């Protein structure tokens, strides 16, 4: 009895025992030359130690914030710091409940989240395109990289007057500033990663007839997927950082506005509330992207 041979019949490819053989990807041998066998743990992945347990990670991650909260309460309850400089945690909680009852807190949060998401998606998309262009084309590297490197050094607040002049004080100026912040981490990581893609992998793709955008989508971007995902996480963090500067542009709602308005009115409890909310929202969004990152790496890496 002879084996079925791929391309010579209509049946599946099998071994001599009649068991189907897995179809081979022409890039598997080159992309995963050093990969571990199926079912083995990846080299950089935790191997079931104590600190890798989910319960330990959750409890350990919450330990330091709870300790800081306890110290904060002890300092304010003991009168070591005057309330006008550092209100008690209960005062910050009461400020949150007051804004929530007025229907303002949820509006501030929703508007800020919307601005960050739109700016992040816009900036990351442009960063992916220009990063791919600079990383793959020597001409684009020579022409664009020096200019973009100089623009990257401009502080976020320096853009505010120009954006007000060009785009007025509407949503466009705020989202554009956030997009600028999200652009550079993606652009930088993608461009740098694509410059170091294994040339043998690229040649293998070209040997199979892949060119241009198809080569980028099929071979090059999957090869730099971990770097792209890291750049996206950095871009999301940068978007939250640029949010406060963006909401200084004549905003009437948002967490950045809440910070600025609370400073003008001397409401330190609301200032701390805005800072805590920015920290929680930033961590939550980063955790969601991290979940997507792990799923993508399990599937494609």
Structure description:
Helix 4 crosses helix 10 (225-246). The protein is globular, with a radius of gyration of 26 Å. The protein contains twelve helices and no strands. The protein has one domain: MetI-like fold (Orthogonal Bundle). The model is unreliable at 1-15 and 19-46 (pLDDT under 50). The protein is mostly helical.
State the distance separating the first and last CA atoms: 38 Å
Percent of residues in beta strands: under 5%
CATH superfamily: MetI-like
Biggest sheet overview? none
Helical residues, percent? 55-70%
> Low-confidence spans: pLDDT under 50, at least 5 residues?
1-15, 19-46
The overall pLDDT, averaged over residues, is 83
Structural class: mainly alpha
Number of domains: 1
Number of helices: 12
What overall form do the CA principal axes indicate? Answer: globular
| Run of helices and strands | HHHHHHHHHHHH
For the CA atoms, what is the radius of gyration?
26 Å
Q: Please name the CATH topology.
A: MetI-like fold
CATH architecture call: Orthogonal Bundle
Number of strands: 0
